[in-house]
Amino acid sequence: MPLIFGDNKMAVYSIVKLSELEGAKRIDAEYYKPIFNSLKTLYKFNVIKLNTISDIAYGTTPPGGIFEETGIPFVRSQNFTTGMINKAEIVFCKSEFHEQNKKSAIRPADILFAAVGGTIGQIAIVQDSIDEGNINQNIARVRILDSSINPYYAGLFFLSKYGQLQIFRFVTGNAQAYLNSFQIGSLKIPVLSKQIQNELASCFKKVEDFVENSHSLYSQAETLLLEELGLKDFKPRYEKTYTANLSDAFSAHRIDAEYFQPAYEEVEKYLIKNFSAKPIKKLSFIEVTTGQYSEKYVDESEGMPYIRGTDLKNGTINTDDLVYISPEDQIESKKAKEGDVVVTRVGTIGLSARVPKECEGGTISDNLIRLRFDQQKLNSYYLALFLGSPLGVNLMIKNSRGSVQQRLNQETLKEVIVPLLPLSTQQKIASLVQQSHEARKRAKELIEIAKRAVEIAIEKNEEEAKREVEEAIEEEIK
Question: Which fold has domain 230-420?
Answer without folding.
Answer: Adenine-n6-DNA-methyltransferase TaqI; Chain A, domain 2 (3.90.220)
